[in-house]
Amino acid sequence: MENKILIGIIAFILGIIVIAFPLLSVGFLVVASGLSVCILAIYWIIRGIQHWNENKATCVLYVLVGLFAFFFGLVLTGNFPLFLFTSSFLLYIIGFLMIIFGITGIINNEKNMSKISSLLFFIFGIVLLIFANLIFENPLYLALIIGIALMIEGISLILESKDKKIGSEEK
């Protein structure tokens, strides 16, 4: 439980940092995401080569996907407009998923804190859909959304941890 509190505090602080330094944060994400895709691509290429003796089709598939991902990662690294376009597209998907998970959580959760968290998930999913178009025009919206999401997640983890402590003390 202490880990959740610590992670919640770290998430909340990172959210404040992202909001306080939006261009630096988004710039970091542009480079980090491109490099992450390149690292994942190298893994896929190595994994594909390992399949050579087992299944040549799997090997070729892994290597081709790895090469495509590597070149995409290279193009993405430092490419601000492509990153913003990709982020906007992903936020549409994430927004829809957050709405679905929020509705599911509201219906299925029994604890009030979980229902509140699910309601926030639902509301934030709607906010993501609204701001997905604006991100390409102004990257400050992306930093704001990421910062708020980190802060909400941090608060949720802290409250969830405290909720479990109270529940275990009652037993």
From TrEMBL:
Pfam families: DUF308. The chain crosses the membrane at residues 5-22, 28-46, 58-76, 82-107, 119-136, 142-159. The keyword Transmembrane helix applies. It comes from the Archaea. Keywords: Membrane, Transmembrane, Transmembrane helix. The keyword Membrane applies. InterPro entries: DUF308_memb. This is DUF308 domain-containing protein. It comes from Methanobrevibacter arboriphilus.
